[in-house]
Amino acid sequence: MESNCSLIQEIEQDLARIAAQMAHEEMPTKPMKWFPASSLSLLTSVSTRISHLLNSTDPSSVSLDEAMADQILSLTDSVSLLLRSQTPITKHLIKAYSSQVSLDPETAHPKLVISPGGDSATYTHAWQELEDLPGRFDTTLNAISLQGFSDGRHYWEVDVTGKTYWELGLTYPTIARKGDAEDCWLGRGKESWCVEFFDGEYTAWHGGVPHQLPVTRRFRRIGILCSFPAGTVTFLGADDTTPLFCFCAGGFTHPLHLAVCPGHDHGGANVNPVVICSST
Question: How many angstroms separate the Cα of 273 from the Cα of each of 96, 108, 174, 201, 256?
């Protein structure tokens, strides 16, 4: 994943350089001479490989007899079993990046009750008489972690058992916290990344752009993995490490804090808290 993200970043940088060069240089009469010989050779090689790939994967050129079809089905089953057998190993590797965090009660909306240990947030109808601190969310039902992280890789799991609505993610400490501005919601601004679950549907958010996820099952735990070297934020169904969504940010400009929103009680169907699981 990290290699692919790095490759995507390199390609985007190359494309940006080429676009800038084309914008400032006049194209000659014979376009092919505008490229160096090495670039022409690379383009020819890439073109040949793409053509070969397209031809070899053209469905109309594939012919399967019954024996070959059985072999492919058998191979598919074997690969499926192999992937399933690797799930415990994958879980173990990811959990090696587990980091301890606790929610900061001074950031929590007045309708959120933060546990004494800072490991859970619960919605309450009662507006608590709390000091209106600059860092406290006053409209969105958010709370963020006391700890922030600026390097390395970090992983957290949050228990969302029995809930019908929640938002989980990572945020810069610069996220807006006052008023009803869209940027106060997780993932609606450029300062945060999140996955939202509402009425059985998952949506990934960043910069106000929603990504509807093709997932229908309800997970007991959601995993959040961030990698500063790769510039990625990844969300998983932690029950069996099902990939949900990966944001390729490219890089982070501020420390990242875990952010949670347990949501309203949703007519009594969403009364359970969101609970940060132990890293052990």
Answer: 26, 14, 25, 19, 22
Q: What is the DSSP string of 93-162?
A: HHHTTB----B-TTTS-TTEEEPTTS-EEEE-SS-------TTS-SSS--EEBS--B-SSEEEEEEE-TT
- How many whole angstroms separate alpha carbon 171 and alpha carbon 62? 48
In the DSSP assignment, the letter for residue 207 is: T
State the Cα–Cα distance between residues 25 and 65, nearest whole angstrom: 55
Read off the pTM.
0.70
Beta carbons of 234 and 1 less than 8 angstroms apart: yes
Domain 94-276 = CATH 2.60.120.920? yes
Predicted confidence (pLDDT) per residue in 29-38, tens digit: 444 445 555 5
